Amino acid sequence: MRQQFPTAERSSALWPSERGARMSLGSFGDAFAAARDAVGLPRELGLHFLRHSYVTHLIEAGYDAAFVQTQVGHAYASTTGLYTQLRWLR
Question: Minimal CA–CA distance to 44: which of 34, 33, 56?
Answer without folding.
Answer: 33
